[in-house]
Amino acid sequence: MWLKPCLLFIALLVVNLPPTTTADEPAFVTWDTLEPDKCASIWLIKRFIAPAAPILFIAPDTSPPPGAILFDTPDAPLRRSHNRSTYENLLTHYRLTDARLVQIGRIMHDIEINLWVRKALPETRAIESALNTQLRGVEPQAAVGLCLHYFDTLYASAAK
């Protein structure tokens, strides 16, 4: 008689627990909006910085879980600055120097920093447009796979 309510209570507790991470891979947390620089940053984290780390999305008025690494928000240590994209700041912070990663960084710089000036790279507008089109209307967590696929393809096609 009491077993069914207890199981329901336990199930509700498990469903409502905050996401957990391993001690080795803290979660990377950002706001629940997506744009090209954040998409590229997610790819960089999942492919070159912390492949097993979860990417969590929170609302702007929500505190990140303890121990999480906040990125691409106004108060995050890893964010866009006046002269570098979030992606570029991640490259610098994690000392990543692969030529193809740096080239993608130039593209993200062109998208994020060169807002009002002529784009420096011929491929920038096409990449920005393609990403914005693909990300439109997609929930952030569902778009992670899209970001990974897009940038895997871009990385593979970049000159070595």
Strand order of the largest sheet: 2-1-3
Task: Please identify the structural class as seen in this structure.
Answer: mainly alpha
Radius of gyration, whole Å: 18 Å
Number of DSSP-assigned strands = 3
Largest sheet: 3 strands, parallel
What does this structure look like?
This protein is 50% helix and 6% strand. With 160 residues, the chain is mainly alpha-helical. The protein has one domain. The chain has a three-stranded parallel beta sheet. Helix 2 runs antiparallel to helix 4 and helix 2 packs across helix 6. The longest helix is centred in the last third of the chain and has 18 residues. It starts with a helix and ends with a helix.
What's the SSE blueprint?
Layout: H1 3-16, E1 28-31, H2 36-49, E2 55-58, E3 69-70, H3 86-93, H4 99-112, H5 124-135, H6 140-157
Helix pairs in contact: 2-3, 2-4, 2-6, 3-4, 4-5
